[in-house]
């Protein structure tokens, strides 16, 4: 039985697997600080790009100034301790990954991104110096892209890569579940140095039951099978890991150039979190909740070597409180 502690999967589930209520997105979750992205191995300069990108940058600055001006009045403006981490985020331009990066920037945690198209980072996060954010051009589907020097100094890794379960435009360019969820994960894990303190992999509920209904419908093109193969490779790698298995993803994805949407992203009324083990949970999971779970798991020692299912329901929740998240994960293990 899953444990619920009041808060508000990496792909699209078939629409008939359940009828889920939708809630307005009105409650700020993260007080994002100014987002500035520097690039290593990428010749991108502040102010370059299309006219649309320039407008986005101007909008970003106005929004950040507005957010910062009343940050002290917002209960979400928690101060975070300084960190010596260097977190590699793979899939940082996707729905969950984008929120992971935004939250790491808010916390003052240095990040490094692997992106197929580094220009996306400039459009999404602005211009940062190397002390905040590094962006490297890399495609995990191609092992030759993953040079050992790219992992220099990395202490933690969050992998949020994924594609759609069924054929779609996102499959263009050989972006299939086999290539992304299996080969990409295998290539990444094989290239990681043994010094990595924790790898967090975002997978999906249902991966252990892909031959059973209704999961077999979800797995018609192999997405759950390939995610499970990725999980198994992580388990056998010898690296310290945590696997997060969300339900059907909601809230977002915030993958457009609309920074107003990203900076004011919320989990609506679905802020309560349910965490379980044993692949028994079903339901929805807010991308905001999944992103926060990934970051929290980095620092919770007993989550190492475990997989957790996660969903979101109506109610208050842990926000970014480390102790509340620790209690959630611990309760799941004690069931």
Automatic annotation (TrEMBL):
InterPro entries: NAD(P)-bd_dom, NAD(P)-bd_dom_sf. Residues 91-266 form the NAD(P)-binding domain. This is NAD(P)-binding domain-containing protein. It comes from Linum tenue.
